[in-house]
Each structure stands twice: as structure tokens, then as C-alpha cells.
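Data card: per-record layout.
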Amino acid sequence: MLLQCCKFSLRAAAGPSAVAEAGLFVPGALSVAGYDNTTFAAFDPISLTSVDQAGQEMGRNAVRLLLERIEDRGRPSSRVTLSPALVRCRSTARLAR
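The structure for this 97-residue chain is written out next.
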């Protein structure tokens, strides 16, 4: 089994169609994953496995930090670390051992 990983889920969504045209199936012959977990990725028939990069949380933190910095321009800069999460759907299969 091969794994195709695309930076954008919309680009990865084209993978299963091209594979089917070649007479193969996702996730049988090929697993496909995206890297932005768009809402589109969860819809059938694609149901695309994707990495969720915590975009909403990232946005909330950016606004909060900006407002804090505007309020106190002398405030030291801050760093926020967020962890991505794998959202498993039907476009990937477990590797055979």
C-alpha cells in the first residue's frame, strides 16, 4: 500500500478519483491524507483522513496576544505551542505488519 499526503485537503481529494480510474481503490491500494482538515474533507464520498492544525485555536490565540500587546506595548512577546491531531477517516488503511 502506498500513502499520498497532500498539503491541502482539496488537492488530496482528487487522489481517490484518479486511483479509481486506474482500476485501484482507496484505501486498498493507496491511502490518501490531507494536511489542513477542511470541513470539505469529512464529506462523502471522500471522507479524507487529515491533520487538524488547530486553526481556530491558533486564531483565538493570535487575536488574544495582539490585543494584549496593544494594551501593553512593553509586554514581552509570547509563544503558544499547539499540537496537531490526526483525524482518521476512510481514505487511509492500517499498514499490514
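Known properties of this structure: The chain has a mean pLDDT of 79. The two ends are 12 Å apart (CA to CA).

See the next section for split statistics.
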